[in-house]
Write a structure and sequence with these properties.
With about 120 residues, the chain is mainly α. The chain contains 4 helices and no strands. α1 runs antiparallel to α2 and α2 runs antiparallel to α3.
């Protein structure tokens, strides 16, 4: 007898099946780690050693790790939720990294443009 709540290809007797037809979720761990490293470095360069990208990056790595653990437990619904959160926090961290880089480069250009003594040191 077929259960109407299960997808047609779901095994009826599989104890690891948790009601998801989505399949494994990408954990976004690499994106989270790279954006955390770059976000921390660039915001520290731009904001006088204040690692603004670090807290958001830690949340991204934590959520990516949760997605990986849910995938290992075949709990794909929660894995997709955690993966979505990991992606959002990694994007926030990457945006902070980009803003930190722009702020750092802008301050360098400003210093060289309005301080001719700095240019003479490099000649």
């Amino acid at each position: 007898m077929n259960d109407p709540n299960l997808p047609p290809d779901a095994p009826m007797s599989d104890p690891n099946y948790h009601g998801s037809s989505l399949g494994p979720a990408p954990d976004h761990m690499i994106f989270a780690v790279i954006s955390t490293i770059l976000g921390t470095i660039f915001t520290m360069l731009a904001c006088c050693c204040l690692p603004i990208g670090l807290p958001t990056g830690i949340v991204a790595i934590y959520q990516a790790n949760k997605a990986k653990a849910f995938n290992a437990a075949n709990n794909f619904d929660d894995a997709h939720k955690a993966a979505g959160q990991a992606k959002i926090w990694a994007i926030v961290t990457a945006v902070l990294a980009g803003l930190g880089l722009l702020l750092f480069l802008g301050s360098l250009i400003f210093n060289f443009a309005f301080n001719p003594e700095m240019l003479r040191q490099f000649r």
